Amino acid sequence: MIINVSNTTAFNTTTFTTIPPLEAIQPPPPWYVHYLPEFLIAAGIISTALTFYLSPELRKIFRRAI
């Protein structure tokens, strides 16, 4: 007795289509991130001016240099 097994068909097969992964939407940065460089520059200038204004010895050196 010969059994023909070459005609077997697979049932219940599913093919999955690949969906590209969705990238998470990043929230906008806080408001101060845009102004941070300006804040740092202004803070440096103000601190330097206050240092010269409040230090009598530095004022003397600065006046002699000019």
Describe the protein's topology.
Elements: H1 32-54, H2 56-65
Helix pairs in contact: 1-2
Keywords: Membrane, Transmembrane, Transmembrane helix
Transmembrane segments: 32-54
Please outline the major beta sheet: none
- How many DSSP E strands? 0
Task: Pick out the low-confidence regions.
Answer: none
Helix content: 40-55%
Estimated structural class: mainly alpha
Order of helices and strands: HH
Mean pLDDT: 81
With helices defined by DSSP (H or I, 4 residues minimum), what is the helix count? 2
Question: What best-fitting shape do the alpha-carbon axes yield?
Answer: rod-shaped
Whole-angstrom Rg: 37 Å
What fraction strand? under 5%
**Distance linking N and C termini:** 116 Å
Tell me what the structure shows:
This protein has 66 residues and is mainly α. The chain has 2 helices and no strands. It has a domain at 32-65. Helix content is 50%, strand content 0%. α1 crosses α2. It is rod-shaped, with a radius of gyration of 37 Å. 0% of the residues are buried. Keywords: Membrane, Transmembrane, Transmembrane helix. The chain crosses the membrane at residues 32-54.
